Every structure is written in structure tokens, then in C-alpha cells.
Amino acid sequence: MVNLIDDPWIPVVRRDGARETIAPREITGGAEPVIRLDAPRPDFNGALIQFLIGLVQTAIPPGDNRDWRRKFKTPPPPDELKRAFAPYAHAFNFDGEGPRFMQDYDLNEGVESSV
């Protein structure tokens, strides 16, 4: 089962030019820092950064301006991000059995028709 929190799927470029695919928690890890997202299209990079912003804002919101500045200067390490993201991981299953990411199970039954 692919999980958008736990599994590597985000393409990045590191300061040394290395390209790799990382899990969200790895955005602050590695000997060479991530310098940019590396999706095949610019709009995908925009979507990825919005995904990461939303995830971090939800999982580890700053307590105040001082806390925000501290986290900006010294981002949380991957192990701290992993712990913070863990309570939300169940909502990010991309495939497998049961509810999947972004699927609405409260929709009314629709009538099938041809297009």
C-alpha cells in the first residue's frame, strides 16, 4: 500500500545537485539540504509545496511568532516530523483496501449514465 506520508514520492534536488525521491519527513534531512522540488512541471512543484505547507501547518503548527522563527531557522529533523505526521498517516493511503486519500465516502448514490 502506498502512503503519501510514509513513502518516498516527492522528487527533489539537493544542494550538491543530486536528484532523489523522498518522503515528506525527509524534507529537512540528509547531509546535503533540499534546495528545490523537482516535479516534471512547474505547476506540480506548486502543488507539492502547498501539500507540504498544509501538512506541516496541521501537524506541527507554531505556538507563536517566536516559535515560528525558531522552526524556520532550525527546521525539525526527520524523526520529529515522522512523529508529528504519524497521527495523520491513515488519511493518506493512496491505494489498498478501505478509504483512500481524497475519496469522499459520504456522497449520495448517483445514477450512472453514458457520456
From TrEMBL:
This is CRISPR-associated protein, Cse1 family. InterPro entries: CRISPR-assoc_prot_Cse1. It comes from Methanoculleus marisnigri. It comes from the Archaea.
